Each structure stands twice: as structure tokens, then as C-alpha cells.
Amino acid sequence: MEIRRIQGGELPAAMDLCWRVFLEFEAPEYPPEGVEAFRAYLSDIEQVNHLTLFGAWEGQELLGVLAAEGSHIALFFVDPAFHRQGIGRLLFQAYLAEGGRGRITVHSSPYAVEVYRHLGFSPTAEEQLSPDGIRYTPMVWEQT
């Protein structure tokens, strides 16, 4: 397996993976406006181009994506066929190795709260619902 930055031409595959995993694990728990807001975010090329993206690759197959804007993780998805195989941890370690240090924040989806806990994140508040229908728990990771 190779963990590396995602290049421009690989962005569509990365956004597709995020969308597919979101639809399976998150969308059933979201109001319709939240699903649409997430889809719009993934489609906003200008926003996506501001992210630093890492991918987990097995040959030509993209298995996972972590995207951050500075010290905030914006997207973190692993293909369901590869859950619980350490891919998320490898992606997070790659992000840390390239400067993701100090205090890192995330707005965790309900499904991913335990994943983030295993990586060392702690909730900073209860679950919230953004005005556009996105459910999340604010969490933080701090380097010790």
C-alpha cells in the first residue's frame, strides 16, 4: 500500500470515494439539506483545491482519503471494504508527517466519532447540527 498526496487529476476519484462512503454511512442519518450541502461541498472545485489531500493506494485503486485545510481535517473516508485495516491511521500519520502538528480539529460525523477517538481526538462539545443540515461533533487532537 502506498500513502501519498493526491494529485489534481486524481481529485475526481477522491471526491467519488468520499461521496460513496458518505452515502452509505452518513446520508441515512442526515436531513436532505445536509446531504445536498455535503454534495455541493465535494463539487466545489475552488474549495477542494484549497485542501491538502492524502490517498491510500493499492496499485491503481484508491482505498482512502484524508483532506485537510491547515490544521482542520475536512474529509476522512475509507472504502468500506477496507475498514478496520489501519488505513485511516496510516493516512492520519502521513498528514502528521507533513506538518499536521500541534492542535488539529475536525467536525466528526456521527459515524466517525469512535474512529477519531482511536486516533487520539477528544470531543469539545456535544453533537451539533449546522444551519445547512450537517451533523457533527467538534473534536480536537493535541500533540503531547
Automatic annotation (TrEMBL):
Transferase is among the record's keywords: yes
Classification via Gene3D superfamilies: 3.40.630.30
Keyword terms, alphabetized: Transferase
One Pfam family here: Acetyltransf_10
Domain of life: Bacteria
Domain N-acetyltransferase intervals: 1-141
GO molecular function: acyltransferase activity, transferring groups other than amino-acyl groups
Organism of derivation: Dysosmobacter welbionis
CDD domains: NAT_SF
Name of the molecule in the record: GNAT family N-acetyltransferase
InterPro entries membership: Acyl_CoA_acyltransferase (IPR016181), GNAT_dom (IPR000182), N-acetyltrans/Recomb-assoc (IPR052564)
